[in-house]
Design a protein that fits this description.
homotetramer, alpha/beta, 2,3-Dihydroxybiphenyl 1,2-Dioxygenase, domain 1, 17% helix, dioxygenase (chains A, B, C, D), oxidoreductase (chains A, B, C, D)
Chain lengths: 321, 321, 321, 321
């Protein structure tokens, strides 16, 4: 039986690894418009302007790129404990840690593919310093006047050897709802979108054709408007940020998108869902066939080849990018 | 103790009364871009293009204007029964009916101010006829090529003699979460915003200074973009739709808005929330003081006088509008 | 010596041929939002909402597709006579006709590639009937509530065997200013953009690789916003209008674009220039090399193959489309 | 007889006076996104990203606010000399100077109200340093990643005791075309809009009820989109820039606008004309009556009181602002 909906409230933040911390930091602050909110060791804590928590992203210097951790906030202390209990009953080993500023204890485990997943409840509400105070009291921080000015971390897209198994982990042990998927002619699930919220997706699994484990396809930040994404494309053009594909509209989930690479090599999506939400409690999982998927994106753009080959960390760093 | 979150999934639809059914119908179809999905007696059933249910709005010919019913969809049959049980335990009399196409039984009760509230679970998923088939399978219906093309019914703003009592009804008996409120200097709550979802509000109570009961301040439809609202203002200008105020941005909830009157006299808001959502499970109720409220809207627009006086049905129909 | 700038005021309208008049008419009215303003014989006269003249487009039933006439409005009667005199002195034969409603005499000649070009001065200002009266007196007609709602005919892109010769015709005999061009490695001009106004282009010549004469690459209509073009793409998706490529941003001229085919087979561009204008009286012709052109569009989209092969009328109607 | 159209190519730049040079400089660079391009004495030269010339704005420290100079670029050396000759024949004394970097000789005179007007032809084309190189060669400079990122100086709105006389000066001696005006019931012209280009206005005269001379109502910068202006309003809200009125749409000229005050006290408009242009060579001057003007802006916003009282320099600096 599925767990009660709602034990996981939302995607909290991710930790991204980069072999070029300075370059990545410039990308996330100057280009995306995130704000630095502390440093510790090799890590820098960054936040989007509408995040109520301490940080939305941890950038950590590393020998290569990739994703280290995805942190999910529970809906309550009880919800957190309930999830931990279910995970352990299902044989998912975890450990408790308290290694992030602004957060209480995190229960750290992993999905079947090996991506680290951390659950937590306690979280300090962010208090903006004077120079970042917003004009309205229902907003955590002033909107930055520079860069794209993304509102929030929107979703994570994981590469995984076995999409279905990892999606099941999120659905049955964390309470996510699957909303859309791609099913190949042979029956295999090539990608699956799941959500903890009324957003139509918070996490995605995409098949890693290379068979490697624990890699990242991309993380995504939401903008307020499609115009923000068009402006982001122009800023990328004028400042040398590499655009992989877009702007265009996805057929699946209908998100308006732009894909760029940050200097560390990780793929970053800028996304805008318009006002689309999944409000139906009985939303039926939508399945796209291989033929439907082959039609490309919503307005006809063909899916770019590198979308099927580029993941982080790269398999052969010398050959990539 | 508060009920578990989530028994009410979302706002389903409303029934609006109009003394000018033909005029109102033209407004909702030609101007807003809703689609007629059946008629019965004095009522016409209408739907927005992204509604998965049979209808988003019932328009009913009547001697005057106003709101007859607000229907809320439960998250499951169990959730529905749980809410009914709690309502009855709290002394709220209700009755079961099955008077709407595409829906199963509705439990009809009322908020303390006398606004009819109906709860239901069973709902047929809409199947578009060929001429309204969408280009993408994750969308219920083609987006209309005419009018504003609103995506969904977004929220209801009720006038009520006692805002706090009615908000409590939604919070404690229906499981809504309050997100923002206005508190007058004397302590009275002048308006309160509540939500069943990750949207920052689904229902609002605004103080009715006239002391009358059961009236409507406005219903709102969400557009995909702020540009849709600017275009809507131009269409209103060229077709004679009465604009009360806007476009502008609310300080409270930060919604981009345009208020118009439909020919029956009911106030209709076109609203765009950008990508703002309330994801925090521990969102603290934000209180705006009388002085803060007096500052007007986000960018400085003063709140228009009629905003405090016009409600439907009008108290003195001859004097209104 | 170049003629004085300004004898030609602006692009007036074009006559488009279609083997499917009914289908084309539905496209231009229902989808683009043009208004029918009279019929005559096999022709229907259509206008965009911000055109001050009788028509922006003539649609004529024909055995095949293509462009019959481009009409340019002179700045005055004297300017018209001056252009006719210069054309005739340069050996361009022409004839006077008065075959279009709302217009005085047209001097009809042709560019070197054989595209019919008509010059005129007298033009009746459009008076909207009551049902199309705009809300503001500085606008000729109400903005349509349906379809894309394009503001004006923006430019014509001709296919031509010899781009340079045809551009010279426009520059030296009609007074157009060249603003941008593509020069192939061998020195040949593959495309050239020219303007009569502060718009950065009104006419374009593109090399026709097939060696055929007098064909059309596309005509373009300007929208008010990029959002209008994104909405147009969604309407195309939901109503079955064929999208060839876009939305994206051109590197040359920086126009935001969407290319669709109308049912008669002619390529139609929806374009938005933002607020870009060429105000400099000494604007230097900008030359893009073959290598620069090969980089694709502004944000990296590769130029679609059919862009180099599809023109109207098709060379082999059976094979095309 | 009117001079030939086109001797004045476009508005070049203005010199603005400010009692708070540091504050004003921060406003124009941090908030509007202009780039500093040199300093000289008490003046700083600033440019918008799409200006091909050396500067779009000169900011000069002064004891009070206001406008010192408006510079108009001629279409050629001959055009410049022709204008000077006509001005002198009409009794308008002028002097030649060469006091601005990047420009050749300027002929400095004044309109009847005493506003300094300078005409020039020679102008060096701007070459961006490496760090400001744009991504596309048809653009002078990279679009700034911070602030509003206005594209160009759009127009100047002068206060004047006698609107008609000053408009006549622009029309008959400089070759501007009047496009719209407000005529009071008594027959007096209260405001008049004129253009040198296909833009619907470049200069505006508004009646100064105080009877003082040579004052400024506002200068305006054009953005690419209406969304840029909505974003600008949000940035103003979060950074404390004073919003006087807007965003909204003007009835006259239909411009989408936002009015703010820069720290020196001068009113600055951010404006977006969409794609509206005046292409008709025989555009009839549109006259708005006092009653039409009283209706307010396009979507119903009432004209703000300070719009009729605030000009720079202020008459009584102590009382203003």
């Amino acid at each position: 039986m599925a767990p009660p909906l709602g034990d996981i409230a939302h995607l909290g933040h991710v930790e991204l690894l980069t072999p070029d911390l300075d370059g990545s930091l410039r990308f996330f602050t100057d280009y995306l418009g995130l704000t630095v909110n502390g440093r510790s060791g090799d890590s820098v804590y960054l936040r989007t302007w509408d995040d109520y928590e301490h940080h939305s992203l941890v950038l950590t210097a590393h020998q290569t790129s990739g994703l280290r951790r995805t942190a999910l906030r529970a809906s309550s202390e009880e919800a957190l404990q309930r999830r931990v209990k279910e995970l352990e009953a299902a044989g998912h080993q975890g450990r408790w840690t308290e290694d992030e500023p602004g957060l209480g204890p995190l229960y750290v485990t992993a999905d079947p593919d090996g991506h680290e997943v951390a659950l937590y409840w306690e979280s300090e509400w962010y208090q903006a310093p004077d120079e970042l105070k917003p004009g309205l009291k229902n907003q955590p921080q002033a909107k930055p006047g520079h860069g794209v000015g993304v509102r929030r971390l929107d979703h994570v897209n994981y590469l995984a050897a076995d999409v279905a198994a990892n999606a099941d982990f999120h659905q049955h042990l964390l309470g996510a709802r699957p909303t859309e998927q791609i099913q190949l002619d042979g029956g295999r699930i090539a990608a699956k979108w799941l959500t903890f919220t009324n957003k139509s997706y918070d996490v995605v699994y995409t098949e890693d054709w290379t068979g490697s484990r624990g890699r990242l396809h991309h993380i995504a930040f939401a903008t307020d408007t499609r115009e923000d994404i068009l402006r982001a494309a122009d800023l990328a053009l004028d400042t040398g940020v590499f655009i992989e594909t877009g702007p265009h509209k996805h057929a699946i989930q209908q998100t308006f998108f732009l894909y760029v690479y940050e200097p560390g090599g990780n793929r970053i999506e800028l996304c805008n869902p318009l006002t689309r939400l999944v409000l139906a409690p009985d939303w039926p999982l939508i399945t796209w066939t291989q033929a439907e998927r082959a039609k490309g994106q919503a307005w006809g753009l063909k899916t770019i080849e590198s979308f099927h080959t580029h993941g982080t960390p790269p398999l052969d760093p010398a050959a990539d990018h």
